[in-house]
Amino acid sequence: GICKTDYGSRGIKMTRLSTLKTCLTIIATIGAIACEDDLKVGQLDPQIAIDPATVDFGNVQVGTTSELRARISNPGTGVLTIAKVEGKTPFGEVFTFNIEDSDKEIAPGAVGILTITFSPKELNAFESVILVKPADSGLTTQAITLKGVGVTANLKIEPSVVSFGNVVVQTTKTVDVKVTNESSIEADIEF
Q: Where are the beta strands (DSSP E) in 27-158?
């Protein structure tokens, strides 16, 4: 005989793995026929993995925006559905995120992208958390820690006072001024 494949109400799929040996009738549990040693009852199980677990923006100039991404992957065997993504305070103030609808259904072995932005409005260190909640109640909500520091350029000008002394009318005198950026971020200087 041939074993039956059943897509019953419990989402169980039976697949023939090798030659038919002995068939058993599984009564009332799944309502299907299984073959001992040849057919295994399997369930398609999604899994969730986040990389990186901490998104560190480092130093970002106050008044600008930096964007990084986190990967939501599915190393499981079933489709991973993301039910909810939410940010904890200070979301909306300095951190924002976006996940495309197409990245909320992640096939086995595939990856969804969560885009996160950091826009500091003041000099300060900021931390927050994004929670990624799968629709499957058997999976745990995953947390992504966010860090960033709002900074500004620290320019040092030497000499601090520029003296031209006596200059004859209709002549030019040049004095060198040294500008040093003592911060870890780039500074644009306009003359």
A: 32-36, 39-42, 49-51, 54-61, 66-73, 80-87, 95-99, 105-106, 111-118, 124-134, 142-151, 155-158
